[in-house]
Design goal:
Structural class: mainly alpha
Distance between the termini: 46 Å
Helix content: over 70%
Shape: globular
Number of strands: 0
Largest sheet: none
Number of helices: 10
Strand content: under 5%
Order of helices and strands: HHHHHHHHHH
Oligomer: single chain
Length: 205
């Protein structure tokens, strides 16, 4: 995978992530709810990637990643509750489902290789987003209500390094490149939807 594709996609994700202003409580709570929904599927999805893999090194990377992600959805849910939110008030969006449902078929068709594009997009954002922005979000909502975003900003630096090493081992792969673009498109749409819903709720309230 060319470094330019990875860099361009992550920069676009970071730009959108900054633009939606997660210091705004309504936007942040909508983002937490959708984050809870898709991370609830992460462990199972990563195990699916492992099951689809024919290469032992790739299989082990996915299994290790699945173990690392276990229970992380509870951090997002806890943060939402800390701010007085109820997950039942935030229905799961179709764009959120697209973020994980599409990966099942992509993984099967590529024997667990193309999902590295999914991992690189999401973890690249978490690893490289500006520390000052994370701190501003933490100050706006309190450390007890920002555990998910802080944990992932710290842990995903290690995850992204491991994913990049594995992609380097695999070599140039158009399926990975296409998937990092697809995942970036979907997640940017998800972020903008959370922003619009949050702002509309605030205006109505």
């Amino acid at each position: 995978m060319t470094k330019k594709i990875f860099t361009d996609c992550v920069q676009r994700l970071i730009k959108t992530f900054n633009e939606i202003d997660l210091t705004d409580q309504s936007v942040y709570m909508n983002w937490l709810a959708q984050t809870y929904y898709y991370t609830s599927h992460s462990e199972q999805l990563l195990n699916t990637f492992a099951n689809d893999s024919q290469n032992l090194d790739i299989k082990n990377r996915w299994l290790s990643h699945a173990n690392e992600e276990s229970g992380h959805e509870n951090l997002a849910l806890s943060d939402l509750k800390r701010l007085g939110g109820n997950i039942e008030d935030y229905p799961e969006l179709q764009i959120t489902k697209d973020l994980y449902e599409k990966q099942v078929g992509i993984s099967k068709r590529s024997s667990g290789i193309a999902p590295f594009g999914w991992a690189l997009a999401l973890e690249g954002l978490a690893a490289y987003v500006n520390d000052d922005y994370i701190e501003a979000i933490s100050k706006a909502h309190g450390k007890k209500a920002t555990r998910f975003i802080r944990v992932h900003a710290e842990e995903d630096e290690d995850h992204i390094e491991k994913a990049l090493e594995m992609v380097s081992f695999i070599g140039d792969n158009k399926e990975i490149e296409d998937n990092i673009k697809l995942t970036s498109d979907i997640y940017c749409q998800l972020l903008m939807t959370c922003y619009k819903i949050g702002k509309n709720y605030k205006n109505v309230a």
